[in-house]
Amino acid sequence: MTARQADHPIDALFLNRHSPRAFTTEEIPQAELLTLMEAARWAPSASNTQPARLAWGRRGEAEFQTIAGLLVPGNRIWAERAAALVVVASQAEKEGAALTWHAFDAGAAWMSLALQAHLRGWVAHAMGGFDKEAAVQALHLPAGHALHCVVAIGRQGPAETLPEHQRPREMPNSRRPLSEVAGHGRFL
Ligand SMILES: Cc1cc2nc3c(=O)[nH]c(=O)nc-3n(C[C@H](O)[C@H](O)[C@H](O)COP(=O)(O)O)c2cc1C
């Protein structure tokens, strides 16, 4: 495995967090999952509106099966082996007024969860590939809310547990250089 290389020095946390698909069979205790979601709760948000909303289930629970059933087949095949699935949504409007930054804030919440997971030895893998229409009903999404991702959480397992075509993607991927991302006083 080629180690990820940073162009500029950053904490190993940011390089080592990644999104594997292979999990061990280890279960996640409910208290531990609550700790990961607690990190999401403390993410910053516009005017502290805290629009992020989560719906979760642990493997073995009916709630987990409901969420797993929403995933597209290419995600379901590996993600139903996860220890937990967490759906990330956000409140998009409040009392008729748009919460303009709800999606940005939900992104911060997911990342807080992912980094807290990494710090505690878990992996968290976000998936946009799920049936959002079906999720509205199945998860009782309130009106004025938007769905974003399902996050699979577990302990990383051996790639051999994956279907053969998914094994090569188990390696951490790379990033475009910072010089293509950050412009001095203007966008590139
Ligand atoms: C919004 C979002 C949607 C994603 N959807 C999927 C998905 O449906 N299936 C999947 O296997 N990975 C999905 N991913 C994972 C990305 O492919 C992955 O985060 C990206 O390649 C960077 O790799 P890393 O997380 O290992 O650093 C998604 C990630 C994000 C943030």
What does this entry look like structurally?
With 188 residues, this protein is of the alpha+beta class. It has one domain: NADH Oxidase, CATH 3.40.109.10. It has helices at 12-16, 30-41, 62-68, 73-79, 102-119, 132-138, and strands spanning 52-58, 84-91, 93-94, 97-98, 123-127, 145-154. The strands form two sheets. The protein has a four-stranded antiparallel β-sheet with strand order 1-2-6-5, sandwiched between helices. A two-stranded antiparallel ribbon has the order 3-4. Helix 2 crosses helix 5 (102-119). Bound molecules: flavin mononucleotide. Residues 18-19, 75, 126-129, 149, 172-173 line the site of flavin mononucleotide. Belongs to the nitroreductase family. Residues 162-173 have a biased composition (Basic and acidic residues). Residues 160-188 are annotated as: Disordered.
Strand order of the largest sheet: 1-2-6-5
Top-tier CATH class: Alpha Beta
Q: Tell me, what's the shape?
A: globular
CATH topology: NADH Oxidase
Q: Which CATH-level-2 architecture?
A: 3-Layer(aba) Sandwich
Give the distance, in angstroms, between the N- and C-terminal Cα atoms.
Answer: 32 Å
The low-confidence runs, each spanning 5 or more residues with pLDDT under 50, are none
**Mean pLDDT score, rounded?**
97
List ligands, each type once: flavin mononucleotide
**The CATH fourth-level homologous superfamily:** NADH Oxidase
Round the Cα radius of gyration to an integer and report it: 17 Å
Protein structure class = alpha+beta
> Element order, helices and strands?
HHEHHEEEHEHE
As for the number of domains, it is 1
| Quantity of strands, as a count | 6
Mind summarizing the main beta sheet? Answer: 4 strands, antiparallel
